Amino acid sequence: MGTTGQLSAVPEPKYWHLRTVLLRAIDSEFSTGQVLPNERELSARFGVARATLRQALDQLELEGRLVRRRGIGTLIAAPRVGVPVNRQEEGWPGTARNQAWRTVDCTTAPASAQLAKGLGIAEGATVHTVRRVRLVEGRAVASESLHVPAAALPHLPGFRAESDRARSVLRQLERLEVDGESRSVELGVAEAEQAALLERPPGAPVLVMTTQYASAGRLVALAVATYRADTCKLTFGEAGLVEVTPVGATAEVRTAS
User: Which residues of the chain form beta strands (DSSP E)?
Assistant: First the structure.
């Protein structure tokens, strides 16, 4: 690594300033997959304590710029993967041509008050929920809960196994013609269950995308997908409008297609 880049007094936290300095070094001196010098060397170069350095490295790992490998060290992470989230590229849930889904489970239960509101049905009405993981280039980028009112699939056949139930729900959905959808995206953190599916620590930053699907003038599905914010970026494509609306301290992105 080249210049020393010693830190001077700054009004922001020292680890955050170091993060910025490290980012400049990463962008100018390293390429994807390269291993960073060890903590002793980095601490000496930037004139900071190891505790401060670890804070900065932890932050960059959280942001997806670095990845730690046991027995190897800290590596420069690959760029984020673009994940299409418009129906023109995705099709119905689970039918994307260039993506892959791995089903986790499928359950049938009465709708909670919150879920009933999102689906526009009565509280306690029967809802099928398919949980799955979205894969891009073999990597898990999102976990999703797809909720479908039983009334939207009146001809759903019986099933002997959970996997059969999931396939049946998705197959029946594919036969419905979508005539409208609404998407919203907001910042969030991964809960324990989602974090395990995404192979991330609980509390890791995520993008939560909620999509309502309509067919024949009524809501027939509600998908809540939790995307890793460190390894992927959502691409909405040219079709559809994008509206950014402040929501408290966060921002919400709504699309219409």
Answer: 66-69, 73-76, 81-84, 100-110, 126-136, 139-149, 180-189, 205-215, 218-228, 232-235, 241-247, 250-256
Strands 81-84 and 232-235: parallel
CA angle 132, 135, 136 (to 5 degrees): 155
CATH superfamily of 81-235: Chorismate lyase-like (3.40.1410.10)
pLDDT digits (tens, 9 = 90+) for 178-236: 888 888 888 888 888 888 999 888 888 898 989 899 998 899 999 999 998 887 777 77
**14-76 CATH pick, 3.40.50.720, 1.10.10.10, 3.30.450.20, 1.10.3810.10:** 1.10.10.10
Alpha carbons 255 and 110: distance in angstroms, whole number: 29
Contacts with 3 (C-beta within 8 Å, 6 or more apart), sequence order? none
Tell me the whole-structure pTM to 2 decimals: 0.68
Helices 50-62 and 14-29: crossing angle, nearest 10°? 60
